[in-house]
Amino acid sequence: MSKKYYPAAVKQPIKQLQMIDITKQFPGVLANDHVNLEVRAGEILALLGENGAGKSTLMKQLYGLYQPDSGRILINGKECHFSSPTDVIHAGIGMIHQHFMLVSNLTVRENVALGLKSSRQPFLDLNIVEKKMMEICDTYNLKLNPRAYIWQLSVGEQQRVEIVKTLYRGADLLILDEPTAVLTPQEVDEFFQILRKMAQEKHLIIFISHKLHEVLAISDRVTILRDGRSVGQRENKNLTKAELAQMMVGRPVVLQYERAAPSVGDVKLKIEDVWVRNDWGEDQVKGVSLEIRSGEILGLAGVSGNGQRELAEALAGLRKCSKGRIIIDSIEMTKASPYERILAGQSYIPEERNKEGIIREFDIMENFILEDHDKIPYSKHWILNFSNIAAATQKAVDDFSVKTPTLSTKVKNLSGGNVQKLILARELNRNPKILIAAQPTRGVDIGATEYIHRRLLKQRSEGTATLLISEDLDEIRALSDRIAVIFEGRIIGIVDGPTATAEKLGLMMAGVQEEEQK
Ligand SMILES: Nc1ncnc2c1ncn2[C@@H]1O[C@H](COP(=O)(O)OP(=O)(O)OP(=O)(O)O)[C@@H](O)[C@H]1O
After folding, report:
1. Which pLDDT score is estimated for 221?
2. Cα–Cα distance, 332 to 319 (Å, whole number)
3. Which of 19, 25, 26 maximizes ligand 1 atoms within 8 Å of its Cβ, making it the mutation to test the pocket?
4. How far apart are the first and last CA of the chain?
5. What is the position in ligand 1's atom list of the atom closest to the CA of 405?
6. Tens digit of pLDDT for each residue in 294-349?
């Protein structure tokens, strides 16, 4: 029987959270198997694990979205049962999701006020909200203009609004799910200062991340899940990336790659003065020109929202170009459909994998042969060959370590990182001449990232021309032969990949040209 935790009026500050022996079973998957986790006031706990290890499932039980099959959740030593996120918010727990839940045409203070109730007056006084909000901002050094509209803010500022919203509602414990995925290196530094300040103010923080250097930089302790079980609780003292990776994956992971010098050939993809509009009809890509040769990886670095998505969608044929030309293998394909581009040898790994890359109600095999179902070996004379489909899908699932109970599991039941691995497996399986890869390892664990990077380098050595769009500077620097930086829809510079530093790229991503940095 679920009962509510203490009402807001008598809420006690959280000093300790314990999750003890938590078990959660889904059909065919034991997502959490007697998992233990503890975090105390003033502490930053990193929760690590491969894709599908059970991190989100564990946090969803803490946040009242799922009920554990067995096990206990204790706050300050007292057992509690949460039946909804409202109970959880009242208890002082807040969650900052990867995708912000803000209304873009409202102001910052209006967003903070959304859903709040006034205790005395019929209407909430926005000036009172603003005053309290600014007190929170001062305490945690959060720089925000309360009257600015959300659409005017950078991604980092929007994240600050989410943090203020959560603190405003009295959260002592904050769950942060891959919070740095969308930030520039400079924004990550600022964000870490905010986290440290929150820890100093005796908040409890659970930080989920696949980026090991960040985990080492920010956490006090690390809890590691593997295959649904807790395999380690370690103080962050003398820990190394290699140890963490080994604990997560269960084998040593190579974190640096040898890259042969590129052996470039003809231009495979030519982008000539391309202009693309966003969903509101404004120019978002403003005259981009790039050339990518066979055997070359061109990295496109930039803070999200600077035109990368629109450019990638235009290249995939999902969005019209308002001006300019796209030439694939010397043939103009500016107006070609997505399918015509696939036939021309182009593969596309989309950034929004749940919207563009996959049909969530279809199973793994069906998704694996999407767009290729009418081709040999999957079908002949319009008759599907199920054993060939199953064999090819099984190989891809094994190669990319897609964690799934069966090949006929619906994709909506896979963890986020496993969906991404499946799309990559499908797109690389075509052996493309041109690959547009948008954020290929975002949300993907270290073991799979290693595999994906090796596959991208293998494709490169086999002559694929790759446009690698990524906000992860380590990834861009590790893989790219040249790096173009996009800022406000324009390419502000192209630099040599192997010698580019994170600082130089970070500044260019903030709009400072290479010459101005000297
Ligand atoms: N609603 C569901 N129905 C069936 N299976 C599920 C459901 N939610 C999660 N699973 C399965 O439970 C396992 C754990 O998934 P979970 O999302 O917790 O992993 P994760 O560690 O958060 O992974 P990622 O890093 O990819 O986000 C996976 O095998 C997943 O396929």
Report:
1. 96
2. 16
3. 26
4. 65
5. 29
6. 999 999 998 877 899 899 999 999 999 999 999 999 999 999 999 899 999 999 99
Q: Where do the domains of the chain lie?
A: 8-249, 268-517
Per-residue pLDDT tens for 251-284?
Answer: 777 766 777 888 889 999 999 999 999 887 899 9
417 lines ligand 1 (CB under 6 A): yes
Residue 270, classified by CB atoms within 10 Å of its CB into exposed (0-12), middle (13-18) or buried (19+), is middle
Residue 5 scores a pLDDT above 50: no
Q: What is the pLDDT of residues 216-234, one digit of tens each?
A: 999 999 999 998 999 988 9
Judge if pTM exceeds 0.80.
no
298 residue type, one letter: L
The domain over range 268-517 is classified in CATH as 3.40.50.300: yes
CA torsion sign, 341 to 347 to 353 to 358? positive
CB 204, CB 39: distance < 8 Å: yes
Residue type, 411: V
In this chain, the answer to whether the domains covering 8-249 and 268-517 adopt an identical fold is yes
The CATH architecture one would assign to domain 8-249 is: 3-Layer(aba) Sandwich (3.40)
Q: Which of 182, 194, 133 is nearest to 156 (CA)?
A: 182
